[in-house]
Amino acid sequence: MITHDHRFVRQWLTMTVRGVRSAYGEGEFAVAIAMPIVFALGFYLPLRVVMSEQGVDYAQFLMPIIVLQAVAFTAIAAAQRSALDKLRGMNRRLSSMPVAALVPFTARMTTSLVRSAVSIATALLFGALLGFGFSGGAAGAVGFVLFALAVGGVLAMAADSLGILARGPEATSQLLILPQLVLGLLSTGFVPESSFPEWARPFARNQPISHFAATMRDLADGSLTAETAAPALIWLAALAVVFSALAYLAQQRRRSYP
Predict the structure, then answer these.
(1) Cα–Cα nearest to 118, from 218, 34, 184
(2) Nearest Cα residue to 23 out of 111, 119, 120, 121
(3) What is the dihedral of CA 36, 37, 39, 45, to 10 degrees?
(4) SS3 of 117, please?
(5) What is the per-residue pLDDT across 46-97, written as a single tens digit (0 to 9) for each?
(6) 217 touches 60 (CB < 8 A)
(7) Pseudo-torsion of CA 194, 198, 200, 203, nearest 10°?
(8) According to its UniProt record, what is one Pfam family this protein matches (predicted)?
(9) Are 205 and 226 spatial neighbours (Cβ–Cβ below 8 Å)?
(10) Which residues, including other chains, have CB under 8 Å from residue 158's CB and lie 6 or more apart?
């Protein structure tokens, strides 16, 4: 006899495999691999000499924000995926089948985490070629990756919900790409706070991307303190609560789509 839990797991695995295969077939993993390399080269090559003159090991400084940008682009893929599922009538078909309500959402989140893991691995391998490393040891490396995956999961949850609520895939890209780029560039992930004009420093210092990058930087160096970690964890928890509510709203709306 198949229990409810076993049925959920079986359906989740089936839909996750479908999602991963579809993502692979549509080139999403190629993008997940290319994006961190493009971002790393785009900032490392022109800025490494300037940062070196300021006494900054730029490869070590830069890689956390490259990883964060990579998982953010993965979230955009999650938004497009959920929007396409809605556009293609997948929601309607699934609602007429004996599929648990949370299975599609959970499968899409798992697929997004797989894409994030591929992108993070690519960023770290390429970063190692540039000189990035984990001087904090294995614990710092594991913490770095888990924190990046947590950020990626929270962003994917928000993007997936927007994909369901938006009119189509193009609208989701417009909603997500600009805020991601603006917050990334106006953070202390690419350059130190001292590089910003005086009026911009409070925002650059206190926004979530800056706290995330600082936490990951200290995890890599093995120097993380509660003073650095606390703001990042508070931001992450707050965003998780807000985006969980958004995901709940989106799932309720999903059931009403024809």
Answers:
(1) 34
(2) 111
(3) 150
(4) helix
(5) 889 889 888 889 999 999 999 999 998 888 877 777 766 666 655 566 555 6
(6) yes
(7) 80
(8) ABC2_membrane_3
(9) no
(10) 75, 239, 242, 243, 246, 247
